[in-house]
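As promised in the previous annual report, we have extended the structural survey to additional targets. Below is the entry for Kynurenine 3-monooxygenase.
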Amino acid sequence: MAATSTTAAVIGIGPVGSLAALGLAHKGYQVSLFDFRPDPRDINDVNLRSINLAVSDRGITAMKYVDQEMADRLLKGIIPMYGRMIHDLKGNQESQKYGLFREHINSIDRGKLNEDLVSEVERYNKSNPENRIQLNFKCKFTNFHADDSGVTIEYSDAERMKRTAKFDFVVGADGCYSRVRSALMKYIRMDYKQFYIDMCYLELSIPPGPKGSFRIDANHLHIWPRKNFMLIALPNGDGSFTSTFFGPWKLTESLNKKELVEQFFSENFEDAVDLIGMDKIVEAFLDHPKGALMPVTCNQYHYSDKCIIIGDAAHSMVPFYGQGMNCGFEDIRVLLQLLDKHDQDRKLAFDEYTATRHKDLLAILELALNNYYEMSTKVQSPRYLIRKRLDGILGRLIPKYWIPLYTMVSFRADIPYSDCIRIEERQQTILKGLEYALVAGATLAGVYLAKRR
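The corresponding structure token record, generated without further manual editing, is:
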């Protein structure tokens, strides 16, 4: 089945939507992109609720699958982060490495990546004038209708005029509040769940030092873990850090006066106050918007060969594993590979996508939720540190047979998320046994030495 005459509408010109459009266009599909927002390159929009992105192996592998040279351009200037830098209450810092062999995740500015991907669409269009990707900004998708002849989408244009357009299929990449997902529900029996965790986020910023220098280590993700709340910071190319406070809604909303904010930060993040500035912290808590964290799960992800949803539209997750965008990009790679496997038969490809991808998406949503507890609490636990050290020793001694969970998730795109959990459960059982053996050995040694005295 040839793809050259097949038309596709991709809804959402965020990173996932733009990469999906490029991936489909490279396969020969005639693609049109729609988004209700203006061209991100034409506006100076400081989004005060945007968490910096960490791009790792799954995202990089997907970008390279779509276009190796494009991936090289997009990844130019990213900042490698080799581990977490833990800041305790006294201002002491401790590095905890991510990988066993210098592997690293990378800090990337979400806004810049979004702009660069739109520019890559235009670069593609210049090189492929016969199969241009149509960019439709300020066009708000409202609904679609599917029948045997294809899919008709409804949208309002920049002048708020109602329009329709006909395509062979639609890809929904329009985020956690997806309108495509809502329209899709009318055609399938979709299991759908959304819930808000009792956690909000608020963006802060650490300004650069003299001459654009970094005031704390640039090659770490910095964490100030305080059990039920925490502060993190990721580096930017100009020497600044994007910092984000995470805390329960009740706590965060109670910090509604200057003196309360000052007292809270002085008691819990004294060294961060020196970096951010108390005036900026107070301004953020009193004046800036606070973001909600809303995981979304659903099943199934498609209707026949007419519509499929990917990215946050299908599986919005909390940001604590840094896998949201990476997982969305991996969706694209998996989908494109299935289209190739089935000779561009969308019905077969979409069916297999839902059947095989769902367990992996549930797995990463679970991992992301669990990782908040690790980041905010466990990273300072002696027991956690001992087990992590054992995990690393085994990973170095027998790398073919032992892979730490973080390595599997962040640095091994060849291991599905669901397999990561299965393998980790087995390894944790072994680690617990080793831990008990070490404790028992230490106890027996202590008793023996005591008797000899």
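The domain at 7-52+109-194+296-370 is CATH 3.50.50.60 (FAD/NAD(P)-binding domain). The CA atoms of residues 18 and 117 lie 6 Å apart. These points will be discussed at the next consortium meeting with the crystallography subgroup.
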